[in-house]
Amino acid sequence: MTVSQNPEGSGYDLAVVGAGVIGLACAWRAAQAGLSVVVLERDEPGSGASGVAAGMLAPVTEADFGEDALLRLNLDSRGMWPGFAAELEELTGLPSGYSEPGALVVAADRDDAEELRRLHTLQRRLGLDSEWLGPRATRSLEPGLSPRIAGAILAPQEGQVDPGAVVAALAHALVDAGGELCSGAEVIALHTHSGRVTGVRTAAGDTVQASRVLIAAGAWSSEGELGAEAGAPEVRPVKGQLLELRVRRGGSLPASRLVRTPRCYVVGRSDGRVVVGATMEEQGFDTTITADGVFRLLEAAYEVLPDIGELEFVRARAGLRPFTPDNAPVIGPGEIEGLLWATGHGRNGVLLAPLTARRMVEALRGVSTVVSA
Ligand SMILES: Cc1cc2nc3c(=O)[nH]c(=O)nc-3n(C[C@H](O)[C@H](O)[C@H](O)COP(=O)(O)OP(=O)(O)OC[C@H]3O[C@@H](n4cnc5c(N)ncnc54)[C@H](O)[C@@H]3O)c2cc1C
What we know:
Largest sheet: 8 strands, mixed
Bound molecules: flavin-adenine dinucleotide
Number of strands: 18
């Protein structure tokens, strides 16, 4: 990899570390705002969590007790997705897989129903758009659901994208807006002068000069020398295994909505792929696919959508979600002048990409401080 310095030779306005959905979205918006931007990715765009994610845009069914501030961020970003996807698709001519199918959180039995009733009460208290449906009403919406289910929460506003497609479109849009994207460029250290950031150094020994550096390295944001010298926020990897299945010739998707249970979710795509996710495992940086992970996901999906058993098994994958101790992302300036962070998006980085990019451009303009819900 050779990183060119920007044409004026004085360095870039912004160097972004990491080409996941967060780094790319921020870089695209910064390039659109007129900054000279380079994204440095040690592998390929989307090779982290963003390339594995299911792509649910699901703030209502992700809402949890004690996370009201995070919910507001998720809802704000959900509201931005229709415009964000339309702009991305129009500028690049590439799909994002955006759709608004709504979601059903299904109770497989009475115990689930009790748990989901509590969740529904919380959703109503928070003023969220959701409705409790009995088994018959639920199955009239999704006839593929098992006759044994005990009801469901309907959240009609939940959406989805195809994260792989979004990453590809963002990379395209970034370059169209004048930004540069360098794959195979691992950043190992910051350059500073008189207490402010002046660029980064790569593993290949290149120095990339930049007046601002944004670290969007996902689960690796606080790793190594870079994380230590940058005063990184605490970010840890939470492993998620996920299955990719496919509808066989002449078949149809097992459900038209996002289907969730307390143990799994099922996301169908318009091209016939079906994603079943995902485990939550504290295993450090391990991404091994385990028999237990595959078994439990299939079992959980089959429990409510028996037609899952008829689908073709394509592959199983694992990704590392970047989690902070309070589950809230860190978006904004760091402690060193010129250093910025966009990391710690946990289970909702795809959902939060439009909002993060907007907040980042505001931070680059100096009109906001650190966001931490
Ligand atoms: C199984 C699973 C399912 C998920 N489902 C959803 C979902 O349905 N909806 C949702 O909103 N979110 C979902 N998520 C969460 C979402 O994927 C993440 O929050 C999001 O992708 C984080 O994006 P990111 O750009 O911060 O990190 P990443 O996508 O991990 O990108 C970080 C990038 O930085 C690069 N990098 C790291 N260190 C360096 C370095 N030193 N130099 C250069 N490059 C470096 C990595 O190679 C990587 O490409 C899911 C995650 C998983 C694992």
